[in-house]
């Protein structure tokens, strides 16, 4: 910190960095980018006034906190932009950004819904194929069972007929035996 001839306090680059919280490179960049008029000593060293430091702090605030572009800072320094209109514009930009984020979120959600629906349709198709296969198997098993039942019924019917025929034969034989005259020996031994 030095006093110049006009008794105005001036600061070195190192002091300015401490006061503004900017790096040396950023102070130099802002000076060049925004065409700031900074005093120099006869040896070419920079000397910053209180107004220079306040301006650097204000530029830093607008860039870092309010998201101003370098173009907007230049317009503001030249009096082309009113800070209040920038705040309104900044708020509108934030709202637009928020809406864009919401739209993107909805698109993502919609995409996930479409993927889910596609997966669901695939799953339903697989289930439908499985149901068709099971139906075909059940149908063939029904035919097999029906055939086997018909064969069984046929065998049972034949067995019943054979039993009936056998009973008839036995009854006829018994009747035949009873109706025959008894032989002499039969009458003697049995009789």
TrEMBL record:
Recorded superkingdom: Bacteria
Residue span, HTH merR-type domain: 18-79
GO MF term list: DNA binding; DNA-binding transcription factor activity
Coiled coil location: 89-116
Keywords: Coiled coil, DNA-binding, Repressor, Transcription, Transcription regulation
Record keyword DNA-binding present: yes
PANTHER family cross-referenced by the UniProt entry: MERR-FAMILY TRANSCRIPTIONAL REGULATOR, REDOX-CYCLING DRUG-SENSING TRANSCRIPTIONAL ACTIVATOR SOXR
Protein name as annotated: DNA-binding transcriptional MerR regulator
Organism: Priestia aryabhattai
